[in-house]
Specification:
Blueprint lengths: L1 H31 L8 E2 L9 H10 L9 E2 L9 H14 L12 H11 L19 H14 L25 H9 L1 H4 L17 H15 L9
Length: about 230
């Protein structure tokens, strides 16, 4: 009788270990990104689009902005440059903190780039992460977000990530060696952007959807706790 009970318990433990990570991911996915109707009209995004919630979150956190305050053309599949991604990250940071630099002194992205350099988020030409006018790859984007989280001691907001470290990408070893550690650490944040059978596609250029996805997730994890009603 004891042997049978032990066997049943063992099987249950295996099932829990296999199912818990995905259950946690599903629960967080549904809870972290409330979808609210935006005041601004989004011309090329519909509520039925899978990334609609991220566009709404991007508007809410100030990551993306409307020039006229009334409408916005998001261009979800357009590739993002290094300068654009750093600008988006800087705007997210401003949501829960003071403004970065003086908007009237420099072009918008220049003050964010200077901020990112000062904080160690980008390292000039090391790992090719500071080429403002060049498209940013998916692995470069992940490393910059990892450095941001590290620079501002935000890792405690992502403690639940260790539950799904057993899940990895099919093309993990195609990731550059300098990016593997950060990507593994941010696995939970990046999992939703995996493509084509759990491939991370590290050397593909990041689209606006992919860039916004991870930034809104960071904002939902960190700054909703700071200013839950702001935006």
């Amino acid at each position: 009788m004891r042997k049978r009970t032990s066997k049943v318990v063992f099987i249950l433990l295996i099932l829990v270990c296999l199912l818990l990570p995905m259950a946690l991911l599903t629960a967080c996915e549904g809870a972290e990104l409330p979808v609210e109707a935006p005041v601004i009209e989004i011309e090329d995004v519909a509520p039925s689009d899978w990334f609609y919630r991220y566009v709404v979150g991007g508007l809410r956190f100030g990551i993306i902005v409307s020039e006229d305050g009334e409408s916005l053309r998001f261009e979800p599949e357009r590739h993002v440059t290094h300068g654009e991604f750093i600008t988006m990250l800087g705007r997210l940071h401003e949501y829960g903190n003071e403004a970065i630099g003086a908007p009237d002194d420099d072009p918008l992205d220049e003050r964010y780039i200077e901020w990112a350099k000062e904080m160690g988020i980008v390292h000039r030409y090391k790992y090719w992460d500071l080429m403002p006018n060049e498209y940013i790859t998916r692995e470069q984007k992940a490393v910059i977000v990892y450095r941001y989280i590290s620079a501002f001691n935000l890792r405690s907001y992502f403690r639940h990530e260790h539950y799904i470290l057993s899940i990895t990408y099919s093309d993990f070893y195609e990731i550059s060696s300098w990016a593997r550690g950060p990507i593994k650490s941010l696995h939970y944040l990046l999992l939703a952007t995996a493509r084509y059978g759990n491939h991370f596609m590290p050397h593909d250029f990041a689209t606006r959807v992919v860039a916004l996805n991870i930034l809104v997730r960071v904002g939902s994890a960190v700054y909703d706790l700071v200013h839950p009603m702001r935006g």
